[in-house]
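Before the break, one more example. Copy the sequence into your notebook; we will annotate it together after we see the structure.
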Amino acid sequence: MITKAMILAAGFGTRIHPLTLEHPKPLLEIGNETLLSNTIKFLKLFGIKKIVINVHYLEEKIVQYIKKKNFNSDIKVIKEKGKILDTGGGILNAIENFSNEPFLVINPDTIWSSSYLEEIKLMEKKFFENKKRKCSLLVVNKKKSFDESIKGDFSLENDLIKRNDKNKLNYIYTGTQIIHPEVFKGLADKVFSMNKIWNKLIENKELYGMESHNIFFHVSTLDAYNKLKKKF
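Here is what the structure looks like once it is written out:
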């Protein structure tokens, strides 16, 4: 069972300008929640006991927000000083918090709801049943994306994620994955995207995928954010 999770909250949110010039993207509101509070509450619902959050851009606003809200959870904030470490570097920088055990990584950009719980639980079950699995992504067909401008990044065949045929890239990363710390073994880089890890795993036929059947609500651009605010 997975009991620890990491929320990636260090990004600049440049595609949401000018809203993110003064507010970090995770603190943007949709409905009665911020993207961050929605994600934290979702993780608690899933059964996560410890949450690690990395911050960089406008970091103090996120730190103060967490203190003020008092989520009644074990939350640790890791500040990325100096240069932002990107998605992969940010996770690697926090890896000591996961005791060499599989953990969940989640982006707050997605509107997470209880309808995702069953899918992620199944992804977790398959992860532990197959010892070969070191990284599994929850993906969704681009036809289910609320933002129709988002293009597919992957294909999914027999639980394996691929990128070799550009005509079959029909799947989008939803923003959550299960990772075993072993995937970072031997990596000397400090600043890098998770795509570096994913591409290596794809090459070795070791990147697994689980298909979501939920409508994919994702704060990708300013236009998408405004439309989501109206919808919710």
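The first helix runs from residue 35 to 46. The chain has a mean pLDDT of 97. Try to locate both features in your own notes.
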